[in-house]
Amino acid sequence: MGVKSMKIIRSPKEMAEFAKELKANSQKITLVPTMGALHEGHLSLVKKAKEEGGICVVSIFVNPTQFGPNEDFAKYPRQLESDFKACENEGADVVFAPSAEDIYAPDFSTYVNEETISANLCGKSRPKHFRGVTTVLTILFNIVKPDVAIFGEKDAQQVSVVKRMVRDLFMDTEIKTVPIYREESGLAMSSRNRYMDPLERKGAARIYKALCEGKRISDSGCTNVDRIKAAVINSVSNAKTRVIYVEIVDSETSLPISEVVPGKSRISMAVWYGQIRLIDNILI
Ligand code: PAF
């Protein structure tokens, strides 16, 4: 059984029933979870999902529980109609776009919390962020029943958290990833890039340049994390850019390491670029 034209499903119950029907017909389901405002980076995830064969479901849900009280939930870009078109052009079979009310009951009180990886890096400055991510992904996985779920490596810590959750809770979904999709300047694609004007976007490319400087030092044989971190911080810092963290981590777990293991380490960073919080990373 295939899906002829792209289906748009709003109701979790309808999505769950459709997924059940697909499973009964031995169809493989691949989920691309997104918060919408889709860009080329998201579309590369959809492409990868299509390569999996079977049915490709893109979820579009701006998840309130992963935003802190002073974060950009209210102003996060929402553009469902153009997202639907982009998914259709990319050959997605289903877009699942529920409302917050349909996902979270008024007396919702059950959260999924990964406690180790989530406490580091972005978790330090966004204390409940990953709890929101793991909770909504558990909900989405329960509804969509994906065999495979695809994530972008820009959110490398999120990938590590999700892989740990899937392992710890014996979830029957395989997590696959797609490399970071960059603008021509090197700036990692993000829905939040649209908060910047073209000049700012160009300026924000200094984040990737700083990561490349860290990689250059590592490639030259240096395994000293403090030296690499200092070089990245020095390279990225200017009047507009305030470092939130630069860490050298294990590329699989995203946990900080004391010495670089070439090919198995990552430089991860988050900065305030003006009013915008940006993250990026590079394998070393
Ligand atoms: O990476 C994202 O866009 C979100 O964190 C996700 C995985 C869709 C969960 O809301």
Give the overall average pLDDT: 97
Helix content: 25-40%
Oligomer: single chain
Q: First CA to last CA: what distance?
A: 44 Å
Instruction: Kindly state the number of beta strands.
Output: 9
Which ligands does the model contain, each kind named once?
pantoate
Fill in the keyword field for this structure.
binds pantoate, 3-stranded antiparallel β-sheet, 10 helices, 9 strands, 6-stranded parallel β-sheet, 19% strand, 2 domains, globular, 284 residues, Pantoate--beta-alanine Ligase, Chain: A,domain 2, Rossmann fold, alpha/beta
What this model shows, in words?
This protein is of the alpha/beta class and 284 residues long. It has 2 domains: 7-178, Rossmann fold (3-Layer(aba) Sandwich); 191-283, Pantoate-beta-alanine ligase, C-terminal domain (Pantoate--beta-alanine Ligase, Chain: A,domain 2, 2-Layer Sandwich), CATH 3.30.1300.10. Helices cover 37% and strands 19% of the residues. It contains 10 helices and 9 strands. It has helices at 12-24, 40-51, 80-90, 100-103, 122-125, 129-144, 156-168, 198-204, 206-219, 225-236; strands spanning 7-9, 29-34, 55-60, 94-96, 148-152, 174-178, 241-250, 265-273, 276-283. β3, α3 (80-90) and β4 form a beta-alpha-beta unit. α6 (129-144) packs across α7 (156-168) and α9 (206-219) packs antiparallel against α10 (225-236). The radius of gyration is 19 Å and the shape is globular. Pantoate (PAF) is lined by residues 33-35, 63, 66, 133, 136-137, 155, 158.
